[in-house]
Amino acid sequence: MTNAWLPRSLEISRERGFLSPQPLEPQIEHARGFVAAWNSVSPTPPVNFLDLGSGGGLPGLVLLQEWNISAVLMDAMEKRVAFLQEVLDFEDAPGQAIAIQARAEELSRDPDYQESFDLVTARSFGPPAVTAECAVRFLKIGGYLIVSEPPDDNAPNRWLVEGLQKVGLEDLGRHRFGSAFQILRKKSRTPSFYPRESGTPKKKPLF
């Protein structure tokens, strides 16, 4: 893999409107905050990760170049998944990632994916309750969910303990690695009825 793969891929993403038209470097640096967040809880890289709502490739493509590990880049939109698979098929791309078009509520119940990941990442996926419910079944017990958060450090905590406990997550708090990130750990097995049917987490959030 060469250093050209990541900027080339993200430039294509930006040209197709999947990323902000702003300069790429700040967007890449934000994605690297996920790496710093992981490093704050583990001395070694994860074995694998899933990027929830990977869309234009951030942070998934940045993490893939950083770690070169097994990864799933998941999104519900066909055009974005086609883009992701296109750049993953480049000759100089990391060789351990796949792009999947799916709803998280459904894919997380697939035996090949449920409770299979050390790390799930989310950038602009949805409100905390939706993100937590849609991510949690992908995680191994002891795995981590890392979520990009709004910049206001003085805003009330958006991650309610009672709601997180319902799905087996514990909140490890809001942390700054340049940008703000919420770190959550899966401490117990997720009850069989979570996540609920597709669309329900958004329509009837847990908290």
Measured as a percent range, the helix fraction is 25-40%
First-residue to last-residue Cα separation = 43 Å
Radius of gyration: 16 Å
CATH class: Alpha Beta
Give average pLDDT, whole number: 96
Largest sheet: 7 strands, mixed
Layout of helices and strands, plus pairs?
Layout: H1 5-15, H2 24-39, E1 48-52, H3 60-67, E2 70-75, H4 78-88, E3 97-101, H5 104-107, E4 117-122, H6 128-136, E5 139-148, H7 161-167, E6 169-177, E7 179-186, H8 200-203
Parallel strand pairs: 1-2, 1-4, 2-3, 4-5
Antiparallel strand pairs: 5-7, 6-7
Question: What labels describe this entry?
Answer:
207 residues, alpha/beta, Rossmann fold, 7-stranded mixed sheet, 34% helix, 24% strand
What does this molecule look like?
The protein is α/β, with parallel strands linked by helices and 207 residues long. It has one domain: 3-Layer(aba) Sandwich (Rossmann fold). It is built from 8 helices and 7 strands. A 7-stranded mixed β-sheet has the order 3-2-1-4-5-7-6, with helices on both faces. α2 crosses α3 (60-67). The chain is globular and about 45 Å long. The protein starts with a helix and ends with a helix. 42% of the residues are buried. The model has no long low-confidence stretch (mean pLDDT 96).
